[in-house]
């Protein structure tokens, strides 16, 4: 069994030029944590996640590398956090992508399981040569397949 | 082979000179880690026969090494308390979150903290709070970061422990904490004030923030920045004692390294008191991991390389050449040292430069009537080497740390843009120092 057999071949995707607001709508409506982002040729560019949204609600100085380790002194309530998120909602998702490890369609099931076990909730499956996104694989996909397997 | 274990001959002088130039070149190229370069060069100094191992070890200034490690350990523990963030927020609120007032206050906090603790740690901990404040005020962080770079290097110049060049000079000459404070702090206060003038005219007078944004900063609770009150009290007590130790070091017949290392040991003891052995081991290891071992081993290697060069008589030769050039005039020599160290420190690492200049100035002492006579030269070297670091983005480690933060915050500090403003301001600070040296000593 390979990643091709385990993945969801029709995942929700975003374009690089889509806005944060559009991404947030997908994440909330479809209860997604990670959405792969592709360019005009369908090549995988990165992942926009629910964590990107949380990051957008916080000041940059808090979320940046080597930023503030303690921000308890900032007395912000939910309206301020919401305001910051709203102010950034028209930014394109391209600015807020994370580059996670990917699987290839012919990656072994063992590699796929190990990657998921290492804490990656869902992993993009990308063609090796063209870098085109062919699917997404989550722990749910794998468990569904494994439990449906007849003895 | 002479007394120091070095072989004094023209052949060895050439070997040492070539090795020294290559070391400098490779360190400047930044292609190889500087600690590796210095240690390889030190090894070659011994293998090629310029020094034997005993002489090489004698060349290492353990007072400098001990002082650096001791202060790094104290800073490593202190930073966990949140005091740096507290000071930054407190200072912003003291000026009612006025954008220009914040720039001045944060610069002063950076300068004062850098005078007593390591510059890099200071900016590492104050810059994120500054970025947060500028984000809340919706003002560009660039002027603040620019000013902090200057403040950290200016503040570091004021004391024996503020900047590595001063630590090296103090250790090599026996100049005390009080000597540095008495001779350098007055001019540093003037330089700091003067530096804020062009910053005001270039950026400060245009800084504006909306009342509601200022109100958000005023709502910051600085007490929440303190993560561990018990640790904070311990750190402040030990830092206070260490500073007192430096002030009375001569009276107590103590070297600076003894004061710093004992302070670090006491702080480790207090911070771990009452914890189980496993917890203690983890905390002690964490603190040791915070020591900048690359810098420490760079110093070790460099001391051996410079001692090798010095042992061959090459630096004495260079000192004689320099004296011939200045006609043996103290004022001219001080000016050459001040300006050359300022300009060179803006483009090359000031640590190897100062390490080389120390034996060179020592060799000049007989010409100027002994150690007392060369005193102005030490101040010229310190002021030039420390303040020169402001000239370019690569002039000091703290500059690069601030630039790294700026990049991550999406407000990059470009090399040329920085240099075009910073270099003239740095030259202005050297002019002030020039007149100060002339007025006070020459």
Automatic annotation (TrEMBL), chain A:
Residues 7-66 form the CBS domain. PROSITE patterns: CBS (PS51371). InterPro entries: CBS_dom, CBS_dom_sf, Diverse_CBS-Domain. Keywords: CBS domain. CDD domains: CBS_pair_SF. It comes from the Bacteria. Transmembrane segments: none annotated. PANTHER family: CBS DOMAIN-CONTAINING PROTEIN, CBS DOMAIN-CONTAINING PROTEIN CBSX3, MITOCHONDRIAL. This is CBS domain protein. The lineage of its organism: Bacteria, Pseudomonadati, Pseudomonadota, Gammaproteobacteria, Candidatus Competibacteraceae.
TrEMBL record, chain B:
It is found in: Cell membrane. The chain crosses the membrane at residues 12-28, 35-53, 65-88, 100-130, 181-203, 256-273, 293-315, 336-358, 378-406, 418-437. Keywords: Cell membrane, Membrane, Transmembrane, Transmembrane helix, Transport. CDD domains: P_permease. InterPro entries: Arsenical_pump_ArsB, Cit_transptr-like_dom, Diverse_Ion_Transporter. It is a multi-pass membrane protein. GO terms for cellular component: plasma membrane. Pfam families: CitMHS. Residues 26-384 form the Citrate transporter-like domain. One of its GO terms (molecular function) is arsenite transmembrane transporter activity. Belongs to the CitM (TC 2.A.11) transporter family. This is Transporter family protein.
